Amino acid sequence: xxxxxxxxxxxxxxxxxxxxxxxxxxxxxxxxxxxxxxxxxxxxxxxxxxxxxxxxxxxxxxxxxxxxxxxxxxxxxxxxxxxxxxxxxxxxxxxxxxxxxxxxxxxxxxxxxxxxxxxxxxxxxxxxxxxxxxxxxxxxxxxxxxxxxxxxxxxxxxxxxxxxxxxxxxxxxxxxxxxxxxxxxxxxxxxxxxxxxxxxxxxxxxxxxxxxxxxxxxxxxxxxxxxxxxxxxxxxxxxxxxxxxxxxxxxxxxxxxxxxxxxxxxxxxxxxxxxxxxxxxxxxxxxxxxxxxxxxxxxxxxxxxxxxxxxxxxx
Length: 315
Known about the structure:
This protein is 75% helix and 0% strand. It is built from 14 helices and no strands. By secondary structure, it is mostly helical. The longest helix has 28 residues, at 223-250.
């Protein structure tokens, strides 16, 4: 897992490794989530995933004698974990009981659309024409996915699941943007561990409140679900989420958002290969519209200084 010092520009090798983790590993987690929720209740599974990874990572930082966080750090990290892991990943996990994994990844790819909207509202500026075109194309792609009609053998996409995924993307975006300027420990791994611990506790709390504890039958948990949970802990949280949080500090949100190009492609391909998810013309048209919208928004939505560009190129 890469480390980051705010005063030192990250190396190109670390950037490439972190982007590779976010691009490929996160694309594969959608299928792992689908297999996991087959026999494990969604919020308890997501909570176990992040809480386990967070505790392991926090123990690692304590062994390395990183500075001890204070109470305000914990409150901030828990708030961010609530947005990104409870509202974001938790809703995705819940929705994948109703929506195919490839489709889930396509809807979550709307994160850059939300980033463009929230950034414009925060700065009180109108989006440039290419960004507006990207927002429109993304909206069209989402409408194509959820409109009535035949999809993957069903009459239509489950609207409740699709709505949960859109809300998940919004929560993830808000948490990502807030975390860039929040009061957190300087050590990125410490902050990441705290966010996962806080988010994991919140996920477990929600799962228990909604009765998932009584629905969890340990004897009925399949080996495929257990292996998927282990994969999510190691590759989705310890490596993938840590790399994502590190990138939020190491580079710009626009560049970090480029993972939305690759994740849907990886998820759709894996869902087709290993879960029998049908790739219909509707998915293909929606994928082109959504990924194309992401490309426009990321290409024209950022406003960076020349000094920032020079620093990133030099890295």
